[in-house]
Design brief:
By secondary structure, the chain is an all-alpha fold. The chain has a single domain, classed as Rhopdopsin 7-helix transmembrane proteins, CATH 1.20.1070.10. Helices cover 76% and strands 3% of the residues. The chain has ten helices and three strands. It is globular, with a radius of gyration of 21 Å. It starts with 6 loop residues before the first strand and ends with a helix. It comes from Aotus nancymaae (Ma's night monkey).
Amino acid sequence: NNTNVPDFILMGLTDSEEIQLALFIVFLLIYLITLLGNVGMILIIRLDLQLHTPMYFFLTHLSFIDLSYSTVITPKTLANLLTSNYISFRDCFTQMFFFVFLGAAECFLLSSMACDRYVAICCPLHYPVIMSKRLCHALVTGPYMIGFINSFVNVVCMSRLHFCESNVVHHFFCDTSPILALSCTDTYDIEIMIHILAGFTLMASLITISASYVSILSTILKFNSTSGKQKAFSTCASHLLGVTIFYGTMIFTYLKPRKSSSLGRNQVASVFYTIVIPMLNPLIYSLRNKEVKNALIRVVQRIRYFLGL
């Protein structure tokens, strides 16, 4: 802790009390839907034996990460909209650690899900053998480990900075760039390191996903029947939509020249991938998925039978 600043002030999204109240209501509703959707998805998959497959195993962890990701950011944002904008030095860096950790983990988990879809469509006969329980656990543990290392290096380097002047963070949560901007020491080396880590996380996972889907597409185009093509496309549609939304906002925010950056646009993009996307993912993977809908019906029927309704 090399700082004369005991805490930070999060500027938030707006100074208008009316808009703050409106944002509080909207963000609270989104967070409640996020909790309901992701916890519901986890419970449905756990309770229904027909969903105990590799695809839904990965989806369980995606829901867990989205739930955790939203919980790291949204409750503090809601509190800041109504009360004090202060956040302690330790709380700020704790929030930053889990934000980077969960964000990186989600990137590589989406890669694991793409690999699963590749095996399911390109090697369907060998799918049960290839996607063994051991491999599935490895494809889930890997993203968590990479995310932890990425975040640990980030936060350790950031914690060595000196903060001796302004303590006003021009953001609604403790992201790396706004915190770097407050340092009164040279941050060039740390910025390079952070951009390398962020670039590796985004590009390595995105290349894996892209390569998987190129192979999937080439395989699907070889199918003779239209129904076979439609079934294969529907299998990947939800994941592809989730990937497009997540990576689109992440790349827009982090992989662009500093001169083209705009605080307002960055904050809108940040709201989208920290608060909105964790709500959208369970909707994307459930509303477009007949297996999840049928599993929900079966779980509800079992609960009603158990309660004697």
